[in-house]
Design brief:
The chain is an alpha/beta fold and 387 residues long. The chain is 44% helix and 16% strand. The protein has a seven-stranded parallel beta sheet with strand order 3-2-1-4-5-6-7, with helices on both faces. The two termini are 23 Å apart. 44% of the residues are buried. The model has no long low-confidence stretch (mean pLDDT 92).
Length: 387
């Protein structure tokens, strides 16, 4: 089959198969429905088999997320480049920093026409103050510039703060940047509960995220400790698993210590997020920085009041005092005050939840995001830019 006759082949590359399954399944299905030939690649994991069971091609990569060995990492980039050549890929789309960089580099080596890098926030290397992170920062920045070079490259960011930051750092030409708000939420699946909450029941607060320190877990637990010391009967729920591949992962023993102290109820991985979100009153994410947090927009679609930090990505979801409250980063006292205010005013909880649902429908519905993403693909595949 000639290149013109065969369907365009798109390779989606993530740092976990879990990410592809939980965050990009709607995009994968849309691409298949539109006639693209889709290949999924990631390190090995249990979700690869689930993607294959849905009829998608998935290939495991010999990738170690925490590896800093330059020879191992160079071999991985070459491995991906060989795979792209063998598959005759037309476009590669990498999600999060490492796949964004390695996918872009491998795409350049393989002569792939379109190279899309999606960076959902700047990640541990750019927000952690440790010596290790600061040492890696200029290296990652240089690799990003190389990966994002050439006319066939596009960078998808999730908020205007990151767009301005990338421009100031001169990591990419501004005309190659597209801002698309997150991965979207299915507002037909994430819906408000059928019945109103019981205003006399204890307020149920949820933090749903990968269990990383930079998601604000310390501040959440400290706020819970302070409010319980006041005698409030608020229930603090924590949903998610630790991420051992991330340097900012919280140890399981630490989480068990919090539950033993009676501060939080740890739910672990939750498969039915719509049901969980419909059962709570307030969704909290005191993150240090995000691209655009999916957990918040899912909660918004379920008409939950929101509390988050006044930081890039998070502030794109919450207008302070409208859909919820924004509090300073790393401020457990401010977080506790916001939760207490909602505990004292259940009518405000309901009004903020209704406003959050309206905003989710207008700005964050997944169809808006999918349209924007496939528009970038068509832009690249219809041109003959330099790889």
């Amino acid at each position: 089959m000639s290149d013109d006759a065969r369907p365009p082949k798109v390779v989606l590359f993530a740092n976990t198969d879990w990410y592809l399954y939980n965050f990009r399944l709607s995009l994968i299905r849309r691409l298949r429905d539109e006639g693209y030939d889709v290949l999924l690649i990631s390190p090995p994991g249990e979700y690869g088999a689930k993607l294959q069971a849905l009829g998608f091609r998935w290939i495991a990569l010999p990738m170690q997320r925490r590896s800093l060995n330059p020879l191992r990492e160079a071999a991985l980039v070459n491995h991906i480049a060989r795979l792209l050549r063998e598959e005759r890929a037309d476009l590669i789309h990498g999600f999060t920093i490492k796949p964004a960089v390695y996918g872009g580099l491998a795409g350049r080596l393989a002569g792939v026409k379109g190279r899309v890098s999606a960076v959902a926030g700047l990640g541990w290397v750019f927000i952690n103050p440790s010596l290790r992170a600061r040492t890696l920062r200029p290296v990652v920045a240089a690799l990003l510039r190389l990966a994002l070079g050439g006319e066939g490259a596009r960078l998808i960011l999730q908020n205007p703060d990151d767009e301005a930051l990338f421009a100031r750092a001169k990591l990419v030409k501004r005309e190659r940047v597209r801002v698309i708000k997150g991965s979207g939420v299915d507002c037909k699946r994430f819906t408000p509960p059928a019945a109103s909450a019981n205003p006399t029941a204890p307020l149920r607060v949820l933090l749903a995220a990968r269990l990383l320190w930079d998601k604000g877990l310390r501040e959440y637990v400290d706020a819970a400790r302070a409010l319980k010391a006041q005698g409030r009967s608020i229930r603090f729920l924590l949903a998610g698993d630790p991420d051992p591949g991330n340097p900012a992962a919280v140890a399981v023993e630490t989480i068990h210590g919090w539950t033993d102290e009676g501060l939080v109820e740890w739910l672990g991985h939750v498969a039915d997020m719509p049901a969980l979100l419909q059962s709570i009153d307030v969704a909290v994410l005191p993150s240090y920085r995000e691209g655009l947090p999916k957990s918040l927009i899912e909660a918004a679609a379920c008409a939950r009041a929101l509390i988050t930090t006044d930081t890039p990505g998070c502030r794109e979801v919450v207008n302070d005092g409208v859909e919820g409250f924004r509090v300073p980063v790393r401020d457990s006292s401010g977080l506790a005050q916001a939760i207490a205010r909602l505990d004292d005013d259940r009518g405000l909880v309901q009004r903020m939840g209704e406003a959050a649902r309206s905003r989710a429908l207008a700005e964050f519905d997944e169809e808006i995001v999918l349209d924007g993403t496939t528009r970038v693909y068509r832009e690249l595949l219809s041109s003959r830019g330099d790889a």
